[in-house]
Amino acid sequence: MLESNITEKSLKELTESYYSIDSLANYIDIYRISKEDPVDFWNTIAERNFSWRKKWDNVLNWNKEEATVKWFEGAKLNITENCIDRHLATKGNQTAIIWEPNDPSEEAQHITYNELSSRVNKMANVLKNNGIKKGDRVCVYLPMIPELAVTVLACARIGAIHSVVFAGFSATALASRINDSECKILIAADGSYRGAKKLNLKSIVDEALEECPSIETVIVFNRVNLDIDMKAGRDRWLDKELSYVDDVCEAEEMDAEDELFILYTSGSTGKPKGMVHTTAGYMVYSAFSFKNVFQYKDNDIYWCTADIGWITGHSYIVYGPLLNGATTVMFEGVPSYPDYGRFWEIIEKYKVNQFYTAPTAIRALANHDIAFVNKYDLSSLKVLGSVGEPINEEAWNWYNDNIGKKKSPIVDTWWQTETGGIMISPIPFVTPTKPTFATLPLPGIQPTLLDSDGNEIEGNGCSGRLCIKYPWPSIARTVYGDHQRYKDTYFSAFEGMYFTGDGALRDEVGYYRITGRVDDVVIVSGHNLGTAPIENAINEHPAVAESAVIGFPHDIKGNALAGFVILKDESRDHDNLQKEINAIISSQIGPIAKLDRIHFVSGLPKTRSGKIMRRILRKVSSNEMENLGDTSTLLDPTIVDEVITEVKAVL
Ligand code: WTA
To answer: Which residue among 415, 422, 519 is best mutated to probe the pocket of ligand 1, counting the most ligand atoms within 8 A of its Cβ?
Structure first.
């Protein structure tokens, strides 16, 4: 705890500077304090910057053996009181959410904190009227419309656990996520707009729900006016439900460690992995990281282009910004519609100050005429962000030169669904940036690199597997319904440490650069895709005997997927088979998981114990034929030549 003779003023200065880092010296100091005494550090931040109904009894309870972490045990709160209610007295009429529709000719919405409060309370009452109570799981399958943010907050208001499923996922993927956490209700829309296209979401919902016994009710928002089927007794229109309720809903009192949400991420098996985030720790860290990484100041306009179906949208469209009383832009559309100037048009229109997007979008936009950029006034920008995958130097420079005009620092933010918030990132105007480097950990975060024997690598100028040595408040607590899987995935590779699944290097000054996944997850256009579920989908094709999926470098997407497929039936036409295989993948997972290349081979490079050497397939597909390593341990080394011939045919 702080010294008792400290004055109120110096206490205030100290704690405000903990929460808001404003110089490199200040960062170095705060980082040191956070490392020396993390418990006191987080205690101070939590105490000074949030509204609690009851304070905690214990800051951190960490059991290494069991891989359990609890923060702020004993505290009582509701996160929506922190996101909304506490701002109403001073910021009731300030815009909380600016919603920009897909089509620029449709009217935008400017939702003030007062209006947000009223909409969230109404939605919370709709959930209650439909039998939802604290602890129930609510599946949310909505496009990027205000109702999505409102529903998420409404769940938090009544203590229901939200499980948002990205509205680009297929019926099979939606069903498996609903079933894994036995959601009771589904909030969906009739359809969605995506550029010039109108997609039917309700038909996907209907197909999914044939397999989902736990869902009792579906609430449907009419977004695109599709003529859809409404199943009697199960499906209800949101507008009608809203007409029955008022806008007062007392917030449920939550324990610090009560579950706030589940969000599914890819794993090394086909089963969805529901990462569980809890209330207080997630709140403290998403707020703290947002404030510092974007250097958000009152009245700034902040825009993150992610979808709320991913963790980036949870932490940095909804919770982090609203916890800080910010104005956050929510965009329904795509960067290419009506044309490739859409992002820049929105920045000019709202005078956006902080802009946060993904390398894949930057690369795609950099490929088009620079006139799309130069048409717009981007002078409001102060900070540019990047997330989701490594940003290559060319994209970094293009972003820096053309969007930031060399005056807006780029924050290359490394983090994961599992970490809940940004872990390694420059702090703009504080940390000198370096292209392709995520640079330094935020205070409270203790990264380390390990060699393959599990030894920590000392000093700088090295590379290894990225682990985190000490818990932070927003670490995911478990995999829903499967704590053993959580332990096995994150806490068994290296003793007592959280293993990220990423490789990284540390340069001479100690800056980190994330080099990519070292497991069976491939990041395609910023989306995490496990290779196992894709292989399972391919293997469902009756003509397929076995398959292996790997990622290879792609100019725009970062990585693309290639499948190596052994057929049972060699007589089938390969072109048709490729289409059929991609159709299965699309329907089981979603179009984002489609393969760019499919090679039909007579065998796969396997070890004598039967393990597929994906490393060899990866190298060949990346055109690194000379550098295949030792292939002598393979069961049948001649397979490698066949693989090389097949891949060369498409290079
Ligand atoms: C990758 C997204 C390099 C990484 C927030 C991580 C990155 C995975 C970066 C998590 C970055 C994310 N540089 N790689 N700045 N940010 N990644 O769970 O491999 O969708 O493990 O969370 O994305 O993806 P997820």
So the answer is: 415
| Residue 196 CB contacts under 8 Å (≥ 6 apart), including other chains | 337
Other residues' Cβ atoms within 10 Å of the Cβ of residue 435: 16
Structure tokens, 420: 């809940």
As for the ipTM of the complex, it is 1.00
Which tokens in the block code for residue 55? Answer: 């304070």
Lowest mean pLDDT among 169-178, 517-526, 638-647: 517-526
Helices (H) and strands (E) in the chain, counts: 22, 30
Q: 368 pLDDT exceeds 90? A: yes
Distance from the alpha carbon of residue 503 to the mean position of ligand 1, in angstroms: 11
Q: For the residues of 16-40, what is the DSSP string, one character each?
A: HHHHS--SHHHHHHHHHHHHH-HHH
Cα 43 to ligand 1 centroid, rounded to whole Å:
28
Which among 371, 151, 325 is positioned nearest to 242, based on CA atoms?
151
Beta strand residue intervals within 393-468, DSSP E: 410-413, 447-450, 462-468
Would you state the pLDDT for residue 268? 66
Shortest-distance Cα residue to atom 5 of ligand 1: 416
At 2, which amino acid appears? L
Rounded Cα gap, residues 272 and 363, in angstroms: 30
Confidence category of residue 14, pLDDT binned at 50, 70, 90? low
- The atom of ligand 1 lying closest to the CA of 516 is 19
Give the residue, by CA position, lying nearest to ligand 1 atom 24.
416
442-451, 530-539, 608-617 — which is least confidently predicted?
608-617
Tokens standing for residue 254: 């939550």
Residue 628 dihedral angles phi and psi, to the nearest 5°? -85, -5
CA-to-CA distance for 436 and 412, rounded, in angstroms?
7
* Total Cβ atoms within 10 A of residue 629: 10
Distances (CA, A) of 526 to 42, 156, 522: 31, 27, 9
Which pLDDT tens digit goes with each residue over 90-130?
Answer: 999 999 999 999 999 999 999 999 999 999 999 999 999 99
Per residue in 458-499, pLDDT (tens digit) is 999 999 999 999 999 999 999 999 999 999 999 999 998 999
- CA-nearest of 254, 263, 214 to 234 is 214
**Residue 391 in tokens:** 């940003």
Residues having CB closer than 6 A to ligand 1 are 265, 310-312, 386-390, 412-417, 438, 500-502, 514, 517, 523, 528
**Which class for 165: exposed (0-12), middle (13-18), buried (19 or more C-beta within 10 A)?**
buried
Distance from Cα 305 to the centre of ligand 1, integer Å: 15
Confidence of residue 83 (pLDDT cuts 50, 70, 90): very high
Q: State the distance between the two ends of the chain, measured CA to CA, in whole angstroms.
A: 62
Higher-confidence position of 532 and 378:
378
What φ, ψ does residue 320 adopt, rounded to 5°? -55, -55
How far apart, in whole angstroms, are the C-alpha atoms of residue 637 and residue 615?
A: 14
The pLDDT value given to residue 580: 97
- Phi-psi map region of 94: left, alpha, beta (phi>0 left; psi -120 to 50 alpha): beta
pLDDT of residue 632: 75
